[in-house]
């Protein structure tokens, strides 16, 4: 899926306006004309001008064309579902990591990802287990990264 | 003990040599897998370098990136699919040569001229950096301001594709650079009350997201099923290159020089260097009709060019702290973490480390011959690793790497956000390099601007008050006006015709 110049220009323009409004709350250095607001305001003005240029360019060269070009993969609902599943999976992983711990959450993550990439079912569990154990040993034990143990491992059993 | 012998002692330690061997093997593997880039190899390596001594960390990055740029040529020659974007320019020639039974000549040329390019770039780095540093010692905030702006402008106009989309990328990078308290008045900017964002956007998780996670997403969408590779032949591979070198000395030298210069330009790296050198080779060749049909000349020039660009990119990174490409953008972060703050004084204050870095560069390029030979021999096995298994494993490495930087889930969240952003950007032909430069150079630009304004009491004309600053300023403005000038020039030419 590819945004044309008009759509991307409009988004850049709106983003620039929002950035400019948000930057107005920052103050300059005492006794100076410039300060924390300078860079975001300059970037906002740059975005507004850029958005306008892209809009004009798009209106000139993209007449009769769709605002958004639907590429091959974007026509397939299954691909969208796979992409969404991978994104949601990592987001859920972030939420549960501290509670469930690195080992279990990573095991589930890698196993589902292997399933999404259509790895043979018989291979999914062995690959997931070996990967997680190797990563845990390398980072957790050797490099001493404090990977979360999770609340589950703190329970009486 | 002299500085140089101390540097040799630092590098020729069994631990450093072992790190170089392992990271070299890692770089060769990542580079040889189509879709995985040298920048991705570097981004994935950074979390591990966190736990290393400074010189080991730099040795790991230098070796992995140089090897990855070379090994990207291997699938090009065997599958007609470039391993990294830097190998895309001459993939038709190398594949046609392998198909027609000239595999050893093609693979040998790719290996030997990569080494020659890498060593040439390193020699320029060794000679030019200290000289440039002496000039840079005279720089004040005015000169640095223009230099950063010049770098950002060059990144837009050199990057392939549309200039407007390059500017969109720069805006994205600069907006990300605004986040946090690291600004003139230490006000929290765009943190939305989040404590983790007060320190700004952590650069490494962002890079892992943009380069590695975005690639995992791209695989989910596009998938890559590789065709069976051609069988690599290595008999007489290296020996035959002497004749090639004697036949194309001018092309080799031109590739070396072009690559180093393009590498030194901010935002332009090995991939652009290879494309430009290949085009130049064809343009000045006596047999341009043979290009794309299995001719070794383009391989020689572009192969030398992309590896010399890897070394060339370190020149502005070390002297000014301005990255020459996406790999050195990551490297600058690592240098700061390791206490080797880039800038002209690094050559005086950390002479031993800098000399050690130069030795590492030379050693890594020499190591490329044996390791590259092994990688070519093992290429059938490397290319047989199914990507459907590799991608979930890479995802876990991305997660652990991002976690290790912040020691919290925040790094992983940041990586996810930038991974999605990187995927969207690539799908919309928005280049990544200007965004990275914006993120790295944004704070520098702001700091030098504000410092200059305090010094000059808000007088903007002071930016042209010193000769070097004025020169840099005029250069920057000329680059901005270049599209307009070119358009006017073309219009006049058409009118005359």
Overall outline of chain B: globular
- Helix fraction bin of chain A: 55-70%
Calculate the terminal CA-CA distance of chain B, rounded to whole Å. Answer: 70 Å
Compute the number of helices of chain B: 23
Beta percentage of chain B is under 5%
Strand content of chain A: under 5%
Mean pLDDT of chain B: 87
Tally of helical segments of chain A: 5
Name the biggest interface: A-B, 63 and 58 residues
Give helix % range of chain B.
over 70%
- Count of β-strands of chain A: 2
The neighbouring-strand order within the major sheet of chain A is: 1-2
The quaternary state of the protein chains shown equals heterodimer
Distance between the termini of chain A: 50 Å
Secondary structure category of chain B: mainly alpha
The secondary structure category of chain A is mainly alpha
Mass-distribution shape of chain A: flat
State the gist of this model.
The complex is a heterodimer of chains A (157) and B (497). By secondary structure, chain A is an all-alpha fold.
Describe the SSE topology.
The complex is a heterodimer of chains A (157) and B (497).
Chain A: E1 2-3, H1 5-23, H2 38-61, E2 68-69, H3 77-100, H4 102-116, H5 121-142
Antiparallel strand pairs in A: 1-2
Helix pairs in contact in A: 1-2, 3-4, 4-5
Chain B: H1 3-11, H2 14-32, H3 38-49, H4 54-71, H5 73-79, H6 91-99, H7 103-136, H8 141-158, H9 163-178, H10 203-222, H11 241-247, H12 249-264, H13 270-284, H14 296-312, H15 314-320, H16 326-337, H17 346-349, H18 351-377, H19 379-384, H20 387-406, H21 409-427, H22 433-455, H23 467-496
Helix pairs in contact in B: 1-18, 2-3, 2-4, 2-18, 3-4, 3-10, 3-16, 3-20, 4-14, 4-16, 4-18, 5-6, 6-7, 7-12, 7-14, 7-15, 7-18, 8-9, 8-22, 8-23, 9-22, 10-20, 10-21, 12-13, 12-14, 13-14, 20-21
């Amino acid at each position: 899926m590819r945004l044309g110049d008009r759509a991307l220009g409009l988004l850049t323009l709106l983003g620039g306006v929002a950035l400019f409004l948000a930057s107005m709350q920052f103050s300059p250095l005492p006794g100076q004309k410039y300060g924390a607001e300078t860079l975001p305001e300059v970037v906002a003005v740059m975005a507004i001008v850029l958005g306008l240029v892209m809009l004009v360019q798009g209106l000139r060269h993209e007449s009769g064309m769709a605002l958004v070009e639907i590429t091959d993969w974007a026509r397939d609902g299954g691909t969208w579902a796979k992409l969404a599943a991978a994104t949601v999976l990592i987001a859920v992983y972030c939420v549960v990591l501290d509670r469930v711990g690195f080992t279990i959450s990573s095991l589930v993550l890698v196993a589902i990802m292997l399933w999404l990439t259509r790895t043979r079912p018989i291979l999914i569990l062995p690959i997931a287990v070996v990967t997680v154990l190797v990563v845990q040993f390398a980072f957790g034990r050797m490099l001493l990264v404090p990977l979360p143990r999770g609340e589950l491992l703190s329970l009486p059993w | 003990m002299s500085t140089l012998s101390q540097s040799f002692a630092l590098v020729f330690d069994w631990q450093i040599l072992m790190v170089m061997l392992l990271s070299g093997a890692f770089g060769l593997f990542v580079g040889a897998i189509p879709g995985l880039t040298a920048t991705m190899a570097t981004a994935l390596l950074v979390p591990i370098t966190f736990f290393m001594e400074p010189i080991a960390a730099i040795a790991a990055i230098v070796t992995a990136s140089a090897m990855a740029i070379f090994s990207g040529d291997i699938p090009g020659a065997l599958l007609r699919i470039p391993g990294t974007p830097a190998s895309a320019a001459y993939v038709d020639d190398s594949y046609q040569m392998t198909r027609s039974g000239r595999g050893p000549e093609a693979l040998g040329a790719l290996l030997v001229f990569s080494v020659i390019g890498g060593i040439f770039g390193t020699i320029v780095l060794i000679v030019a950096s200290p000289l440039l540093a002496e000039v840079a010692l005279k720089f004040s905030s005015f000169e640095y301001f223009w230099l950063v702006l010049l770098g950002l402008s060059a990144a837009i106009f050199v990057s392939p594709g549309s200039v407007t989309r390059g500017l969109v990328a720069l805006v994205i990078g600069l907006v990300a650079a605004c986040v946090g308290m690291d600004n003139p008045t230490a006000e929290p900017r765009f943190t939305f009350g989040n404590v983790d964002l007060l320190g700004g956007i952590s650069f490494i998780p962002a890079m892992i997201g943009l380069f590695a996670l975005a690639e995992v997403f791209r695989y989910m969408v596009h998938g890559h099923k590789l065709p069976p590779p051609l069988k690599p032949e290595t008999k007489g591979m290296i020996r035959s290159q002497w004749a090639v070198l004697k036949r194309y000395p001018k092309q080799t030298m031109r590739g070396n020089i072009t690559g180093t210069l393009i590498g030194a330009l901010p935002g332009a790296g090995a991939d652009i260097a290879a494309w430009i050198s290949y085009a130049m080779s064809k343009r000045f060749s006596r047999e341009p009709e043979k290009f794309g049909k299995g001719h070794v000349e383009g391989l020689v020039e572009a192969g030398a060019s992309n590896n010399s660009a890897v070394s060339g990119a370190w020149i502005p990174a070390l002297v000014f702290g301005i990255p020459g490409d996406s790999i050195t953008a990551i490297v600058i972060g690592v240098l700061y973490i390791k206490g080797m703050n880039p800038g002209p004084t690094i050559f005086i204050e950390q002479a031993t480390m800098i000399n050690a870095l130069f030795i590492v560069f030379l050693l890594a390029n020499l190591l490329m011959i044996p390791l590259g030979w092994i990688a070519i021999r093992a290429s059938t096995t490397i290319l047989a690793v199914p990507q459907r298994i590799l991608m979930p494993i890479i995802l876990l490495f991305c997660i652990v790497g991002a976690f290790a930087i912040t020691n919290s889930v925040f790094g992983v969240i940041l990586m996810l956000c930038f991974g999605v952003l990187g995927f969207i950007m690539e799908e919309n032909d928005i280049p990544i390099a200007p965004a990275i430069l914006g993120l790295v150079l944004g704070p520098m630009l702001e700091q030098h601007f504000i410092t200059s304004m305090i010094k000059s009491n808000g007088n903007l004309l002071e930016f042209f008050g010193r000769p070097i600053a004025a020169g840099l300023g005029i250069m920057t403005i000329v680059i901005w006006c270049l599209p307009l000038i070119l358009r006017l020039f073309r219009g006049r030419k058409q009118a005359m015709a």
